[in-house]
């Protein structure tokens, strides 16, 4: 007999079906709850609410497992490339060589942006945060491709928007940095692979030859893969919710970029590095900052520790920690911030206070150190996260459209005033 959940309300019993995922996660399907009982559920922060059924990413927070389309993150980070993982997330299978070549070729062909997009850069203050520019310009792509706002896009039309977005985001992202620095904006080079082209647009000058370092390209591939999807996190849920109104892919992803910018989400990697720099400036005594983090009356917060869903460790943090060691030693960099980070991690992993609260380093803790080692400035860290997360957002948006999910419309429990009559201004005290 199919499993169900019984609910007794006001002495009356109701039965709701239980649905089970392929990894045996169980959920009570309350779609008919309000119709049948008049009640709704309340779940602030949605910690117990499955907003959708999804076949893209599996995450087990208790066991520290993360898989894209069934493939363990450890294997993908070690053996795959960012574009291959993007294909996997978006289309559901690992591509054949011909499929990957075609996907890469299509993306390469679309890396140029309309010259009018370039002109928009002149309207931003040069000190604007790159995430503000990135979200604005990704949204602005809807103005250049107005046909992308339609409930009836064909498979081919969706694919074209996917390719355009994958291609143009790296050009726009690199230009946000160049704009910030007052440097000339570099046009993409279609003879280069995705990551090399991004690095070229970020770091080359028309006056000098730019040598691409394969160690940096491989570190970048790994970082982007590790960030590529994380099931229904805040920005992805935003993309799906905005997309559920049949908003364009560009508009939906732009909304996700704004969510990611928040310091409690993707903005955390910038905050980790700023924290490490502040500790270094203070003399580098990590035990002092561990004590401050434990002091309830001290406003200091240890950034990059703990996670909403991982309760033992973040599998991405393990991979990134090793990658940080590898990249720094391959590049011959001796970064004092890495030592501070390692000391903080060590102290936290052996301190009862942090163990009890399950405060383990998360993905943001070491990513900033690698970005710094490969020359990415701090205010670009969240942009790098967005670049990595893009295939995940696209895959989730596409899945939502293909499953014909209804427009998202949560309810609320109203706690305001009861009905009262309007009072003229002269009678108000
Ligand atoms: C992410 O990768 O999106 C972050 O770890 C946040 C999350 O999953 O909630």
UniProtKB/TrEMBL annotation:
NCBIfam families listed in its UniProt record: cit_synth_I, PRK05614.1
Active-site residues, Swiss-Prot/TrEMBL: 307, 364
GO MF annotation list: citrate synthase activity
One cellular-component annotation, GO: cytoplasm
Stored InterPro entries: Citrate_synth-like_lrg_a-sub, Citrate_synth-like_sm_a-sub, Citrate_synthase, Citrate_synthase_AS, Citrate_synthase_bac-typ, Citrate_synthase_sf, Citrate_synthase_typ-I
Record's keyword annotation contains Transferase: yes
Pathway the protein takes part in: Carbohydrate metabolism; tricarboxylic acid cycle; isocitrate from oxaloacetate: step 1/2
Keywords of this entry: Transferase, Tricarboxylic acid cycle
Reactions catalysed according to its record: oxaloacetate + acetyl-CoA + H2O = citrate + CoA + H(+)
CDD domains: EcCS_like
Name this polypeptide is given: Citrate synthase
Organism this protein belongs to: Hymenobacter chitinivorans DSM 11115
UniProt family annotation: Belongs to the citrate synthase family.
GO annotation terms (biological process): tricarboxylic acid cycle
PANTHER family per UniProt: CITRATE SYNTHASE
């Amino acid at each position: 007999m199919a499993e169900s959940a019984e609910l007794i309300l006001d002495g009356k019993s109701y039965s709701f079906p239980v649905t089970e995922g392929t990894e045996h996660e169980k959920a009570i399907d309350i779609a008919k709850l309000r119709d049948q009982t008049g009640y709704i559920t309340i779940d602030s922060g949605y910690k117990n609410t499955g907003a959708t059924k999804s076949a893209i990413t599996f995450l087990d927070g208790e066991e520290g497992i993360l898989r894209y389309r069934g493939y363990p993150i450890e294997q993908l980070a070690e053996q795959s490339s960012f574009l291959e993982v993007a294909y996997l997330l978006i289309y559901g299978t690992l591509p054949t060589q011909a499929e990957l070549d075609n996907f890469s070729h299509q993306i390469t062909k679309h890396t140029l942006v309309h010259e009018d997009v370039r002109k928009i850069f002149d309207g931003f203050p040069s000190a604007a945060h790159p995430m503000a520019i990135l979200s604005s310009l990704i949204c602005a792509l809807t103005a250049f491709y107005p046909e992308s706002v339609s409930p009836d896009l064909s498979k081919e039309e969706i694919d074209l928007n996917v390719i355009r977005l994958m291609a143009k985001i790296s050009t726009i992202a690199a230009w946000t940095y160049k704009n910030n620095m007052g440097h000339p904006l570099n046009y993409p080079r279609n003879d280069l692979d995705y990551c090399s082209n991004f690095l070229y647009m970020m770091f080359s000058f028309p006056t000098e030859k730019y040598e691409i370092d394969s160690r940096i390209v491989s570190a970048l591939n790994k970082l982007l893969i590790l960030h590529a999807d994380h099931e229904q996190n805040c920005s992805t849920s935003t993309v799906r919710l905005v997309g559920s109104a049949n908003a364009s892919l560009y508009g939906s992803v732009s909304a996700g970029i704004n969510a990611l910018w928040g310091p409690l989400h993707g903005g955390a990697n910038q905050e980790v590095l700023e924290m490490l720099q502040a500790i270094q400036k203070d003399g580098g005594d990590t035990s002092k900052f561990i004590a401050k983090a434990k002091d309830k009356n001290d406003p200091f917060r240890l950034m990059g520790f703990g996670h909403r869903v991982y309760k033992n460790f973040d599998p991405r943090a393990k991979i990134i920690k090793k990658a940080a060691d590898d990249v720094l030693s391959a590049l011959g960099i001796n970064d004092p911030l890495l030592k501070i980070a390692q000391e903080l991690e060590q102290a936290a992993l052996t301190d009862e206070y942090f163990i009890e609260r399950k405060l383990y380093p998360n993905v943001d803790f070491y990513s900033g150190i690698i970005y710094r080692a490969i020359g990415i400035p701090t205010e670009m860290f969240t942009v790098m996260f967005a670049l990595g997360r893009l295939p995940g957002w696209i895959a989730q948006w596409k899945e939502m459209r293909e499953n014909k999910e209804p427009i998202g419309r949560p309810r609320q429990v109203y706690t305001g005033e009861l009905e009262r009559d309007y009072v003229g201004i002269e009678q108000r005290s």
